[in-house]
Amino acid sequence: MPQELLERGKPLLELRGLRKNFGPVRALSEVDLTATAGEVTALCGDNGAGKSVTIKIISGIVVPDGGEIRWRGEPVHIHSPKDSAELGIATVYQDLALCDNLDIVQNMFLGRELSNMSVLDEAPMETAARRTLADLHVTTVRSIRQPVASLSGGQRQSVAVARAVLWNSQLMILDEPTAALGVAQTAMVLQLVRRLAEQGYGVMIVSHNLNDVFEVADRIAVLRLGEVVAEGPASGFDRQSVVEYMTTGRLTGRDGAPANSGVVAGSPGGAGRTEGEA
Amino acid sequence: MAVTPEMGTGKPNSDEGGAQGIRQAEPTTQKDGYSLDLEETSVTAALAAAPEVVASDLATYLRAWWQRVRSGESGVLPVVVGLVVIVLVFEIKTSLYLSAGNVVNLLNQAVVFVLFAMGEVFVLLLGEIDLSMVFNAGIGAGIVAAFVVHPYDFPWWLAILCGLAATTVIGLILGTLITRLRLPSFIVTLAAYIGLQGVMLWMFDTLPIAVGGVISVSNKVLLDFVNGNLSPTASWVAMVLAVAVFGGLTIFRDVRRKAAGLVTPPFGLTLSKVGVVAAAGVVLVWVCNINRGTGTTKVRGVPWSIPIVLVLYFASTFLLSRTRFGRYIYAIGGNAEAARRAGINVRMVRTVAFLISGLFAGLAGVMYLSQLGSISTNIDPSYVLFAVAAAVIGGTSLFGGRGKPLHAVLGGLVIAAVYNGIYLIGLGAAATEMVTGLVLLVAVTVDSVARRGGQKEAV
Fold it and tell me: What does the pLDDT average to over A41-45?
């Protein structure tokens, strides 16, 4: 059975000096990143900054060339998606990996159906699915026996997240969760993200949409050309500074980040330097 | 480096400084403000949901069902209506059509179509197709026939087991080729369609008992599958038992689900379902028990083929709706990548689906053999296309993810009804093929237009 959720504020997943090359192309060089229990960490960066590779390493699709991964303080090796899932990491991709023709319960239990003498045991599955959705306050679906095809984008995202919660994941990685959604739907998903964090789950969210990032993130990490150029509490950033970090790797033409922001910025050259602490 | 529009539109000047403290609180304060919008989206979503999951009583159910029919999700309604229309048209043309003798004849003709189509449903659900079924069936029937006659003289069940084993293995081989080598099933089974026809010709050339390419069987049990009847009393007893078991299980399941607080279809719906099944059973047995013999010989009772098909129908329905394997078939048909990520052994499920279509080809072959009393190389190749057509007419999607064995039964009945009727009014081979083709086209068009009309309304 699963481990208990970590106490809020404790580091759940730590990446230290993660490196990855694809042939001569350096995809990641020295990525340091921490996902904390009960917090939403946003991963920002332009196309090609290394967001996808970082996520793929965490979810076991890509194996890093070097660096260390710690899970709840223990060094671990993630060699396959299965390893990642067994640790308690769930990655919800943009395409959501739901079967449109199956209903919500069937999707949430897909691949792990409960059965009794090889006959599907629907009752406990339906009860557990209902409870999980209620815990996450996903109350807008009319019936959990309706096919996923009839759900809105935000509801589909909720089902995908609920599936991860149902299977005792502790860290949810959401890849562009609001990319295809309208205003109301986006709000619904962002509420869900906040709720996950409030309940003690770790959430790592990748988004191009800075409005969303600032709405939900507790911490922001900005990637550029395969390294983390700035990392810190969301309150230490504003949209302008995130954009500048994403595009140039440092703050230009301004007096730097607000005082006591706690943002740690790495210079594009590599050696880290702290800003705002002086 | 390019800045994406979202990034650019951020208003930095208004957010500096003071915004830091507010940001944390934002999500919590906005929660209630959005709930109204969310309610609205859930209502539109519910319109498309299956009526049984949103209705608590029969009236609501019927309203939701009608709404679904109007939006194009008509289910089996068009086929049932179509079947009634076809029957009426032929009955007007010739009063022989609904005579007891012809109805039983029609049902027996439908058996082969239905079994082929049931096998096809398993692969169509995956978005695949099996074109080789007809000659696979021919080979199976040939093996059964060869083993049951002299010099082998196998008991009928052993001969059938050998035949089914052969067709199942052929299905397994095709499935393995398709999944392991990642070849399209259309091409692999097309190759098998051609190749197996050759194997069948060779088989009938080589076997000494195949006189002029025909093997005749005289085994009583084998012939009785289609030509033998239960006694009238046994027919009634079997029907009452079957309806009682079906009704009991259905009602028991609903009561238990309701007690556990789960989503349950309205009780009135369950009762009317059982009622319809019981009524159908009574009519069927009543018609079959009318003497349909000519002259002094009395022929009465339900032919064995009907309980055989019903058992296979319930078995495949159970497999598809109540087991993991069945669930995975639907999942793969709906989104193969999602199924793979959920840890489902996609290859294995696919392979087994082709194995099952091979098994059903064998079963159809046995019933075909029983119907004709012989098997020759002249087995009609268009059976395989009728099999696909029957499944699609019944409501199974060619693109995977949607379909059930009931569709095979209804579609098979439609095709048999047309075939039988045209033959009965003596229109000749040319007209038979033309009308059958037309009916198929109309059936698929009605379904497609209904769906498209629904989409237009929704937009």
Answer: 90
Mean model confidence pLDDT for chain A? 83
A49: tokens are 């900054």
- Give A-chain residues touching B27 at CB under 8 angstroms: 190-191, 194, 215-216
A119 touches chain B (CB under 8 A): yes
Q: How is domain B75-228+303-445 classified at the architecture level of CATH?
A: Orthogonal Bundle (1.10)
Q: Do A239 and B7 touch (CB under 8 A)?
A: yes
**CB-closest option in B38, B47, B331 to A110:** B331
Asked if B41 lies within 8 A of A185 by C-beta distance, the reply is yes
Please judge whether A150 and B335 are an interchain contact, meaning their C-beta atoms are less than 8 angstroms apart.
Answer: no
Are B6 and A210 inside 8 Å of each other by CB?
Answer: yes
Does the beta carbon of A129 lie under 8 angstroms from any beta carbon of chain B? no
Residue type, B379: I
What gap in Å lies between CA B109 and CA B367, rounded to an integer?
10
**Nearest Cβ partner of B10 from A82, A188, A210?**
A210
Radius of gyration of chain B (CA): 27
Q: Which residue of B has its CA nearest to A155?
A: B42
Which of B19, B23, B38 shows the shortest C-beta gap to A188?
B38
pLDDT at B7: 40
Buried b (16+ CB within 10 A) or exposed e, B199-220: bbeebbeebeebeeeebebebe
Domain boundaries in chain A? 11-88+170-274, 98-168
Put simply, whether B343 touches A (Cβ < 8 Å) is: yes
Q: What is the mean pLDDT of residues B281-307?
A: 91
- Domain limits, chain B: 75-228+303-445
List of chain B residues whose C-beta atoms are within 8 Å of the C-beta of residue A208: 4, 6-7
For residues B371 and B227, give the distance between their C-alpha atoms in angstroms, rounded to a whole number: 7
Banded model confidence at residue B439, pLDDT cuts 50, 70, 90: confident
Complex ipTM above 0.85? no
Pick from A31-35, B122-126, B388-392, B414-418 the range whose average pLDDT is largest. B122-126
Structure token pair of residue B228: 């033998």
Q: Closest Cα partner for A123 from A105, A137, A99?
A: A105
Q: State yes or no: pLDDT of B10 exceeds 60.
A: no
What are the pLDDT digits (tens) for B360-374? 999 999 999 999 999
Between A and B, how many CB-CB pairs are < 8 A?
Answer: 190
Residues 6+ apart with CB under 8 A from B3: A46, A243, A247
Q: Which residues of A touch B53 (CB under 8 A)?
A: 103, 142-143, 145-146
pTM of the model: 0.83
What fold, for A11-88+170-274?
Answer: Rossmann fold (3.40.50)
